[in-house]
Amino acid sequence: MAKPKIATASLAGCFGCHMSLLDIDDRILTLVDLVDFDKSPVDDIKKFTGRCAVGLIEGGCCNEENVHNLQYFRENCDILISVGECAIMGGIPAMRNTIPLKECLDEAYLNGPTVYNPSGNIPGDKELPLILDKVYPCHEVVKMDYHLPGCPPSADLLWEALVALLENKPMDLPYEVIKYD
Amino acid sequence: MAENLEKAIREICELNGNDHTRMMDIVREVQQRFGRVSSEAMDFIADAVNSHRVEVESVVSFYSFLSEKQKGKFVIRLCNDVIDKMHGVDNVAQAFREELGIDFGESTPDGKFTLEWTACIGMCDQAPAALVNDKMITRLSTDSAREIIKSLKANGDENRLTHLLGDGNNANLLVNSMVNNNIREEGPVIFAKLDAGKALHKALAMSAVEVIKDVKTARLRGRGGAGFPTGMKWEFTRAAEGDEKVVICNADEGEPGTFKDRVVLTERPDLMFEGMTIAGYAIGAQTGVVYLRAEYAYLRAFLESVLADRRNNNLLGNNILGKEGFNFDIRIQMGAGAYICGEETALISSCEGLRGDPKNRPPFPAQKGYLANPTSVNNVETFCCVAQILDKGAGWFAEMGSTGSTGTKLLSISGDCTRPGVYELPFGILVGDMLEKAGAENPYAVQVGGPSGQLIGKADFQRTICYDDVATGGSVMIFNEDRNPLEIAHEFMEFFCEESCGYCTPCRAGNELIKERLEVIMKGEGTPEDLDYLEQLGKTVAVSSRCGLGQTSPNPVLSSLKNFRGEYEKLVKENKDGMQRTFDIHKALATGEELQGRKSVIYAD
Ligand SMILES: Cc1cc2nc3c(=O)[nH]c(=O)nc-3n(C[C@H](O)[C@H](O)[C@H](O)COP(=O)(O)O)c2cc1C
Ligand code: SF4
Ligand code: SF4
Known about the structure:
Chain A is of the alpha/beta class. Chain A is built from 6 helices and 7 strands. Chain A is globular. By secondary structure, chain B is α/β, with parallel strands linked by helices. Chain B is built from 25 helices and 14 strands. In chain B, strands 5-11-10-14-12-13 form a 6-stranded mixed beta sheet. A 4-stranded mixed beta sheet of chain B has the order 2-1-3-4, covered by helices on one side. In chain B, strand 12 (about 445-450) and strand 13 (about 455) form a beta hairpin. Chain B starts with a helix and ends in a 9-residue tail after the last helix. The chains are: A alpha/beta, B alpha/beta. At the A-B interface, helix 3, helix 5 and strand 6 of A face helix 25 of B. The structure holds flavin mononucleotide and iron/sulfur cluster (2 copies). Flavin mononucleotide (FMN) binds near residues 223, 228, 343 and 548 of chain B.
């Protein structure tokens, strides 16, 4: 039987959640025995090569490309998981949600003390994805099946969750794994 | 001006003994005189009562009848309860807006009028209703709304608004109100005649322990909602350590749809005070407090006069009815517009001059209540029952009603029925029979027990009204087939979001989340999973909230989900492709497109 495939994406996140995934250390060898990696920054595969069992999403949606990518994942993965605070609630990027978008962009591109911008324009090149009015957590854009909290979730939590999913067993959640202070 | 303000505040504080535990009375008085409690005023108050400014501010900012911002000479508070909405309050609101040229939450530039919404003011049987300062105006129409403004502009006096007075004591000079009692059925407990002092006389001939035993034998349970056995509460309070014990009568009546205490306060105050005095004797208390909701301020002068009569007749004061050493008096503590203050520990906070935050339990009020003294808080109606039990006997009382719920219950019935009003009915009556009495023609859904109770449907009309089946503190709201259970639940969720004191996250944030998800479903954008989500979140809020408000606030949603599931299922759709219909990419991109100066290529429509 072919190995199930998993895919990962980093949307509006800091890659910390991906780093945490790598923190499973030598268990990564076991993981490679269990699954194949499909579209993911880890292997730099850009397009899905086939249907995936699990998609891990880090970060929420701050621009149109994030939304597009997330929808692409939803179409191609059986199970989608919000990994980390940013995916679940928007996280640090969502701090801008209390400030009108115009004020944010003006500060970044026009009024900030270190800004040098003689054109006085806000960048609008079509290579740059358009920004959304606010940062959306993933589940507001597509249906998410599970949420793994943490900033980032610990390697143990990610490992436990993946193994439980792949082996179709209940998840072992000792207190240490979901304790945050 | 500043000097005048300072002088006036010093006087007000002086009159209240410069006592910071009387903060409610002080700030109410300042609000009344100056139309606000300004920042300066708060400093003066803090100084006079030797408190901190932040303490004063926390009180002023908590209660809806107090404000730092200047209010108009006439504050019009229009009730936006679900029942008032059914009776066309939106049109009345529009008439007020047009006549005054301002919206709700605003004041006219000349400083004469302020327009505000308020939660249930206890007039569902004569809705739509509003308060003009302390004056209660009922059965409003667009015409009468316009008349009111014209009259206030012409006469400058809210007392000239009421031409026809209501029935019974509503026409008493001290009440002088257009409110009607709407007593539809008088029963043998609350509405039976009892001469002032008769029951007290009998109680004083017994020992305190015997009085408590009588209340226990009658198996009296509290009428305020929770149904806690009254005798047991008194026993705990009596046994608790402390010399100064306190009896508090809960006349906050804030549960939307409840107005039975209003009628008791108007027609049977002697019975209530008699019950309180008996409680004082039984518990060993010297102090009694009636916590009267701000909305019922129009009854205050009348209640004070009844208290004065009782003092004159030695039914209050020292050595009551010649009983050596039994001293007991009652004062009235006004609230300032906060539903949460009906919760007994929040009520105690409020009486102590604090914001109406519930307290942690234990210690229970019976152990450490008002100013750390052992305190028994009971409902208005509970005290009335006590007086009749002492007069007519525990056996007489216990024979009425059902086994677990003895006696009668006052019900305030409103909504889609021809005979809204107050009914005294024996416990154990069938819901269906009650609906018939009220003249409910096409009852589809009935909210029993107010927003914190249950929304029940036809399948439950064969059940009985009592603590062990369909429980209620008195509120019964009837809805016919034209009404939508989801909208009803939504109204109540808005109420709870507004009234949550904000102390615990499950209640402060959870209720908002429930309301939001309900709105998604009502817009037709929900999925079947949203129903599970509501159920789970509702249970979480209920088990993890600190006080009764949060513990019951998910009930409208949980009970309508249970009893009217079809109405929800009609609106939700399976989400096959997993894309959230609530997310609108074009809307999310609109501002970015404008600011970045180009249209989306990925999402070109
Ligand atoms: C949010 C909330 C509001 C309440 N409002 C009232 C009220 O208006 N009147 C009342 O008698 N009890 C009210 N209660 C119940 C009181 O906390 C308390 O149980 C009751 O006054 C005790 O009196 P009883 O034993 O005679 O019923 C409320 C409870 C909660 C949680
Ligand atoms: S959750 Fe924390 S670690 Fe993960 S992307 Fe966000 S900020 Fe980085
Ligand atoms: S449950 Fe709600 S009202 Fe009660 S203490 Fe908590 S936040 Fe306040």
